[in-house]
Amino acid sequence: MVENQVPATIKNRLQISCYDCHSNNTDYPWYSKIQPAAWYLKDHIQEGKDELNFNEWATFSDRRKNSKLRSIISQIEEDKMPLDFYTLIHRDAILSDEDKRMIIDYMTALKDSLE
Amino acid sequence: MKTVKRTIGTMALAATMMLTVSCKEGNKNEPATPMSNEMHQESMDDKDDMEMNENKGAKAVLQDYFKLKDALVETNNDKAKQLGTTLASALGSFDASSYSDSEQQELKDIMEDAIEHAEHISESDMAHQREHFKILSKDLTDMVAITGTEMKIYEQFCPMYNNNEGGAWLSMNEEIRNPYFGDKMLKCGKVQREIN
């Protein structure tokens, strides 16, 4: 899903708000060159990717996709993601209410289609 | 103004880092999970028997699952954390080799998903544990559909969980003890199905 059939607006939103920690395409920021930010980030991004890496999406079973979608939806609904720490610096990563609605609706429809 | 903002941002970043680091260190000091995995291996001579397979796999998984369910009924966060770890390891050692290819694939998908939920349960707060328990219960219900079970299991359902979305679980006892609400609504739910 997240790779090819996703509507452009959603894909774009996910790239800006999620992909730095949840894909192999991390856009490392200026402070990533300064210690201790460097090792902190490395640790954090690894944790993010372990939890969910959009690049691995195609390899997941439908069952697993379903679980991941459920988690994505609940993280966004509860405003747990993107992390405050991340949006503090990446102001453009903040999800507006409309963004949230759009992503949640899309993910929910996708989840229902897998059940 | 922008520089001021950025400076504040950087300071907050540094503070967040220190906090997170200390939290992480703290976690490492948690006591090791006791392995309460004493399975009664019955007769070892019927190795080729399907029942043997169930003892090694589904039965062990279910027993750990039921213990976890009981911890959720008690609303015991720490105990559920420990039992999440125990269950994850039982799921990890599940042996599907005696099943057909398509069943093996299905069981592999189930285990992968269930392990992830069990691991999350081992590191989450109560509300989160219960969210994961719901999907975990679905995974294990699907597992039992393939493996069968020698013990009688009740599939039970509480329609009120998660803003009336509802949540099912498996139990060895017919009597309802609700793992989603604990003593807030201990007896909410009904038996949906008997499996044996």
Automatic annotation (TrEMBL), chain B:
Checking Pfam families in the record gives: DUF3347
The DUF3347 domain is annotated at: 61-151
What is the official name of this protein in its record? Uncharacterized protein DUF3347
Q: Which organism is it from?
A: Maribacter caenipelagi
